[in-house]
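So, can you check these tokens?
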Amino acid sequence: MKNRDVSNKTGDDWSTPKSLYEKLNSEFGFDFDPCPLHADFDGLSMEWGGVNFVNPPYTRSIKDAFVKRGVEMQKKGKTSVFLLPVSTSTELFHKVIFPNATEIRFLYKRVKFIGVNTKGEKVENKTGQHDSMVVVFKPKTNEADN
């Protein structure tokens, strides 16, 4: 459970609220997280699990790379559920997310992430700079889905 760049002032090290993760996990049954907070591995260069929870760092180049990797995993028959900032006017959204997602859910209210603020204090109520969406990439089952 993680997220990172909620604010440029505080960096990419922010956790997904436990209640949001648990709600998604109860629905999807995650078996892997390719980019957990403080990972000691590179989730972009390894094989992912069958059902993945992905809340990548929000730094654009890293976020984009994880989303593109999620589409690669989809083509290999794997499911990935992303927590992402809403950015519907971007190339990533129009050329990668929208044509490949099997579902996009726009969340009500901004997510309150867990992390350490600029004063070094742990906080659990830091909202992101953007609204959030859950993007699901499930394997496509037939030609009509491609």
Observations:
- The chain has a mean pLDDT of 87.
- DSSP finds three helices and seven strands in the chain.
